[in-house]
Design brief:
Layout lengths: L1 E4 L11 E6 L8 H9 L3 H8 L9 E5 L8 E6 L8 H17 L4 E5 L7 H16 L18 E4 L6 H22 L7 H15 L2 E5 L1 H6 L3 H7 L7 E7 L8 E12 L20 H16 L4 E11 L11 E3 L5 E3 L7 H14 L4 E6 L3 H7 L3 E6 L2 H14 L2 E4 L17 E2 L7 H10 L7 E5 L5 E2 L9 E2 L4 H9 L1
Helix pairs in contact: 3-4, 4-5, 5-9, 6-9, 8-10, 9-14, 12-14
The protein binds ligand BES, manganese (II) ion and zinc ion.
Manganese (II) ion binds next to loops.
Length: 490
């Protein structure tokens, strides 16, 4: 399938199906559209009236054209209110069009959507991203997939000009999102610490990044007792992945992205009970998956910043060697942790990863983690929690996320709640009281970042979607690769 931009307006475009976007309560057929309607034998106006189409967000309808024009189908998409219409909304509209066109077995599709930011290339990029993300399907684990072949052959973005560059850019970003989706969707018997390291190695090789994989002994030498405490019960070796993108010339800034990479989380000896969603815990490397996805995209986009991608990968299992509730671990910054709950393992792995990241002397660190169920309780499935120590960095991430159409909500770094993590015997416990559980998790992580500007993203909700929505299909979403990419490019 090919996506390309064209100068043709809807009036002069010819192909299988034409898709038109309308803002809410702005569905009058005048000017060029009136001429188009005439060409289509009045189908446009009839469809609007019969379907009671008003342009509300998510509204969509399609009909067959009877008149003798090569255009056989018309698709209408509601864009919602014109105020506050952003790139994210455009991507979602493009995704809805692509899904509908696929269902309608359209081969050549023309898409007419409004400009965002009065910028044709940003518009084309957002539309192309939406299309490609919506059409991605993961058939790796099906022996006889239902929809092996895609009917769509050509998609033209109308009235935007060529836009080859913007569409190529979208493909690079999407390749990273898809990598993240596929890593999250693959089960824990496929994606292990070993295969995550192999994936990172492949990215390094394909795009010329430098890579360092620390084995268990290397981690022991660095004193990563916290990470290794979690890894202890697994039959598989832990891998501490450090992938680096170096720009040409002197880097404009140095950044680190640290992703929680638990390829499976059984809970350890505080094992997850019935109804805990243990069978979904293959997604507990969602942070690491997005880290590698961002690496893949960034390696192709070649920004001016140096970027370090860090994944302390392992699984949280049970065995005779498992860490016990009550064990005391020592992290690589010398701090001791009383593990009062082995199911709060993500923060233990991140502790050593954050210490490692800070030692690199970067200007900013962003960690992303499927860290707490409490964050899902607070913000639901679609919104990630954001905590930070630096206003500038927080603002950068917020802007990046708005442009990506990925939602975050800033949460309080309430120092007083650290009292809940006080241990009578060690420097801290790894869990506090049930209430404010995502905040104490953030405060725990904060003990492992001394002075570097840092943002923590709790992505437990949005890495997975139960049903398709916006650019997400049901299943793994690839959240928040596009936010990370926008931030680094920013
Ligand atoms: N991986 C989980 C968090 C999670 C829960 C992610 C649901 C996605 C969906 C994490 O390791 C965990 O188990 N957290 C515990 C912390 C508790 C023991 C303090 C939780 O949220 O229950
Ligand atoms: Mn856990
Ligand atoms: Zn976990």
């Amino acid at each position: 399938m090919q996506i390309r931009g064209t100068d043709h307006s809807p009036l002069h475009w010819l192909g299988d199906a034409i898709a038109l976007g309308f803002f809410e309560n702005a569905v009058e057929i005048t000017g060029d559209l009136a001429q188009l309607d005439e060409k289509l034998g009045g189908t446009l106006q009839e469809l609007i009236t019969e379907a009671e189409f008003t342009g509300k967000t998510g509204q969509k309808c399609v009909t067959r054209v009877g008149s003798n024009t090569p255009i056989r189908k018309v698709i209408l998409i509601g864009l919602g209110k014109i105020e506050g219409f952003k790139r994210g909304n455009l991507g979602a509209a493009a995704a809805a069009i692509a899904r509908l066109a696929k269902k309608e077995k359209v081969k050549t599709l023309g898409i007419n959507l409004p400009l965002v930011e009065q910028n044709a290339s940003k518009t084309a990029e957002a539309i192309a991203e939406g299309i490609l993300l919506a059409l991605h399907q993961d058939n790796r684990f099906k022996s006889d997939p239902e929809d092996k072949t895609l009917p769509l052959e050509t998609i033209e973005l109308l009235a935007l000009g060529k836009q080859n560059e913007a569409i190529a850019q979208a493909k690079k970003v999407v390749s990273g999102v898809i990598l993240a989706r596929e890593l999250v969707a693959a089960p824990a018997n496929e994606v292990t610490a070993i295969t995550m390291a192999e994936t990172a190695q492949a990215i390094a090789q394909d795009y010329g990044l430098s890579i360092e994989i620390l084995e268990q002994e290397d981690c022991e030498k660095l004193g990563m007792g916290s990470f290794l405490g979690v890894a202890r019960a697994s039959e598989l070796p832990p891998k501490f992945i450090h992938l680096t993108y170096h720009p040409e010339g002197t880097p404009s800034r140095k950044l680190a992205i640290v992703g929680k990479s638990l390829t499976f989380d059984s809970g350890g000896l505080n094992i997850k009970g019935v109804g805990s969603g243990i069978e979904t815990m293959k997604m507990d490397m969602g942070g690491g998956a997005a880290t590698l996805g961002a690496a893949k995209a960034i390696a192709q986009l070649k920004p001016s910043a140096e970027v370090h991608f860090i994944c302390a990968a392992t699984e949280n299992m049970i065995s005779g060697r498992a860490m016990r509730p009550g064990d005391i671990l020592k992290a690589s910054n010398g701090k001791t942790i009383e593990v009062n709950n082995t199911d709060a393992e993500g923060r233990l792995t991140l502790a050593d990863a954050l210490v490692f990241a800070e030692k690199l002397g970067v200007d900013a660190i962003v960690d992303l983690a499927t860290l707490t169920g409490a964050c899902i309780v607070a913000l639901g499935d679609d919104i990630a929690g954001l905590w930070g120590t630096d206003e500038t960095l927080i603002a950068q991430i917020k802007t990046a996320s708005e442009n990506a159409g990925e939602k975050f909500w800033e949460m309080p770094m309430e120092e007083k709640y650290f009292e809940g993590l006080k241990s009578p015997i060690a420097d801290m416990k790894n869990t506090g009281p049930r209430s404010g559980g995502s905040i104490t998790a953030a405060l725990f992580l904060k003990q492992f970042v001394e002075k570097t500007p840092w943002v923590h993203l709790d992505v437990a909700g949005p890495v997975w979607a139960d049903k398709e929505s916006g650019v997400n299909n049901s299943g793994a979403t690839g959240f928040p690769v596009r936010t990370l990419v926008n931030w680094v490019l920013g």
